[in-house]
């Protein structure tokens, strides 16, 4: 009997771009332009460190204590961020996604996470990655296959790389007027604050410096076509950008700070989110995905 080898990842390319997407978590393992990395990669065939490149759904970021109430019923999710006591980054990053289609420039993967006591809803989540000469375009579509309304949110989790210089020397342009204060120990939401006069004001491009960021931003400036973008540039002249549509009114930025001996500040996490952290409890911008309904969110990563 012939044995079929499991496919761990799918490669696509277009012009001077190439990418590798893993079956596990439908994660963006590698994105390159002219042989330089646009995201922090990770080794093929192994674990995914720091959630690099995953799709976070059916919620982005964290749910405090893994507990929430939806439509009058209390639910409890598994706590996988044990040091902060939170349920982190959804339910689909540990799954092997199913291949729907794959050609030279695109790949589509899907998953149907099993309903659980903490999230008793039947969803199908699909992501399409498409490479063109304009960059890597990603679109996530969630469909509610069940008979009950489901709370829902989504985000990607790439760590962008502007160039060879240290992150502190990169210049950041971030079109957000407000950020979300968080508790220092658990990174749980407190209040929103204007960036005006604060170290988090990157509306005009400037170097990141030693500023440490692990916060959500909102009041984002979308253009007339309904898109916003973050630009990160290296002093050597290279750069990387990310644009997204108005389905994501929030943006998590993280400077990937690590304690020694771990590698520190390897890339800048840029995560367009459909809702803020702990939205399952606050309800802020939480998608109520009705029976038979769908939700789409899209973003693009491109070289500069």
Would you write up a description of this structure?
The protein is an all-beta fold and 304 residues long. It has one domain (9-303): Distorted Sandwich (Beta-galactosidase, Chain A, domain 5). 1% of the residues lie in helices and 45% in strands. It is built from one helix and 27 strands. The strands form seven sheets. It has a nine-stranded antiparallel sheet, with no helix packed on it. Strand 12 and strand 13 form a beta hairpin. The longest helix has 4 residues, at 279-282. The chain starts with 8 loop residues before the first strand and ends with a strand. Residues 1-5 have low confidence and may be disordered.
Itemize the secondary structure elements and their pairings.
Layout: E1 9-14, E2 17-22, E3 28-33, E4 36-37, E5 55-56, E6 62-64, E7 67-70, E8 73-76, E9 86-88, E10 98-102, E11 106-111, E12 123-132, E13 135-144, E14 150-152, E15 155-156, E16 159-160, E17 171-173, E18 176-182, E19 189-194, E20 206-207, E21 214-220, E22 227-233, E23 239-245, E24 250-254, E25 268-273, H1 279-282, E26 287-289, E27 294-303
Organism: Arthrobacter cupressi
Pfam family, one: Aldose_epim
InterPro entries: Aldose_1/G6P_1-epimerase (IPR008183), Gal_mutarotase_sf_dom (IPR011013), GH-type_carb-bd (IPR014718), YihR-like (IPR037480)
């Amino acid at each position: 009997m012939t044995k079929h080898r499991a496919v761990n990842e799918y490669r696509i390319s277009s012009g001077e771009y190439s990418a590798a997407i893993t079956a596990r978590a439908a994660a963006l393992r590698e994105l390159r332009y002219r042989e330089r990395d646009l995201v922090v990669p990770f080794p093929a065939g192994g674990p995914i460190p720091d959630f690099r490149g995953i799709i976070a759904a059916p919620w982005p970021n964290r749910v405090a204590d893994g507990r929430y109430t939806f439509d009058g019923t209390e639910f409890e999710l598994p706590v996988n961020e044990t040091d902060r006591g939170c349920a982190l980054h959804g339910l689909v990053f540990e799954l092997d996604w199913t291949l729907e289609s794959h050609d030279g420039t695109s790949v589509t993967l899907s998953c149907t996470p099993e309903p659980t006591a903490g999230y008793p809803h039947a969803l199908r989540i699909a992501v399409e990655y498409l490479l063109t000469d304009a960059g890597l375009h990603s679109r996530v579509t969630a469909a509610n296959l069940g008979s009950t309304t489901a709370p829902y949110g989504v985000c990607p989790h790439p760590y962008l790389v502007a160039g060879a210089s240290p992150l502190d020397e990169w210049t950041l342009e971030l079109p957000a007027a407000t950020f979300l204060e968080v508790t220092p120990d658990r990174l749980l939401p407190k209040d929103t604050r204007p960036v005006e006069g604060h170290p988090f004001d990157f509306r005009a491009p400037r170097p990141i410096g030693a500023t440490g960021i692990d916060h959500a931003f909102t009041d984002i400036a979308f253009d007339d076509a309904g898109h916003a973008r973050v630009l990160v540039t290296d002093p050597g002249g290279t750069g990387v950008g990310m644009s997204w549509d108005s389905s994501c009114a929030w943006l998590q930025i993280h400077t990937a700070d690590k304690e020694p001996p771990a590698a520190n500040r390897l890339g800048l996490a840029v995560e367009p989110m459909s809702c803020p952290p702990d939205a399952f409890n606050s309800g802020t911008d939480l998608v109520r995905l009705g029976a038979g309904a769908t939700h789409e969110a899209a973003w693009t990563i491109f070289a500069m």
